[in-house]
Amino acid sequence: MSLEQSLIKQGSFLFKYRGQFPILLFLLSIPFIYLSSFSDFNEKSILIFNSIACFITVLGFLIRFYTIGTTPKNTSGRNTKKQIADTLNTLGIYSIVRHPLYLGNYLIWLGITIYSYNIEFIILMSLLFWIYYERIMLTEEEFLKSKFQQVFLDWSNNVPAFFPRKLILKKGHVSFSIISVLRREYSSVLSSIIGFLFIDIIRNFFILNTFYITPLLLKISIFLIVIILILRTLKHHTCILIEEGRS
C-alpha cells in the first residue's frame, strides 16, 4: 500500500469519528493546565487571553454559519456520515477555500485552547488538528477528484485547501438560510460551550483547589444552552409534524 493510499484509508476512518476530536483535546488539556504556572497572570493579561479566545471562536462560528447557510444539500459541504456530493461546491465561500468547515472548526478549537492560557497546549492542538484533518481532507478530495475529475482539478489548482489567499467571494446560487444554521449548528455551539466550561473548571480547580465556574462564563453558557434546548425542541417537533403530514 502506497503512503497516499495509507493516508486515505486513515482519513476514511477518521472521517467517521471526527466528532470525537474534542474529547481528545479535553483529555490532553488536563496535564497541560496542571503544569501551567498562573502566578505571572494579572487581570490585564487574562482579559487579553479571554478576548482573543472569544474573538477567534466567534470568527470560526461565523465561517461555519455562512458555509452551512449557503451550501446546497447533498454536496461536499453537507455530508456527515459518508462522502456525498451530487454537485461540487465552487462558489460562495468555496471560491476562496476548499475546506471552510474545517477552517471554522480549527478556529473554534483554537479559541478554546487559548482560554487555557497555555502556549504549549495551543501548539499541540494545532499540530494534532493538522495531522487529524489533513488525512480527512485528503480522503474527501480523492472522492471528489474521482467523481468530478477535471472540474475538481481546475478548482483545486486555483483555490487553497485551508487558508484563503483572498477574500473576494464568487456569489453562489443559494441565498443564506438562517433556518439551516439554526437547525444544524446548535450541536457545534453546545460542544464549544462544554469545551470552555471544561477548561474553566479544570483551571480553577488547580488554582483554587475547588470546583468553580467563572460567573460571566456561567451566565453566557446558561443563556446559550437555553437557546439550544429551544432550537432542539423546535427541530424535533418539526420533524414529527413533517412525518405526520406524509402519513
Would you give an account of this structure?
The chain has 247 residues and is an all-alpha fold. 69% of the residues lie in helices and 0% in strands. It is built from nine helices and no strands. Helix 3 runs antiparallel to helix 4 (100-114) and helix 8 (186-208) packs antiparallel against helix 9. The protein is globular. 25% of the residues are buried.
Strand and helix map with partners:
Layout: H1 3-16, H2 21-34, H3 43-69, H4 100-114, H5 119-148, H6 150-158, H7 178-184, H8 186-208, H9 215-246
Which features does this protein show?
Four Helix Bundle (Hemerythrin (Met), subunit A); 9 helices
In a few lines, what is going on in this structure?
The chain has 247 residues and is mainly alpha-helical.
CATH hierarchy class name of the domain at 3-174: Mainly Alpha
Uncertain segments of ≥5 residues (pLDDT<50)? Answer: 240-247
Described by the principal axes of the CA atoms, the overall outline is globular
State the distance separating the first and last CA atoms: 50 Å
What is the N-to-C succession of helices and strands?
HHHHHHHHH
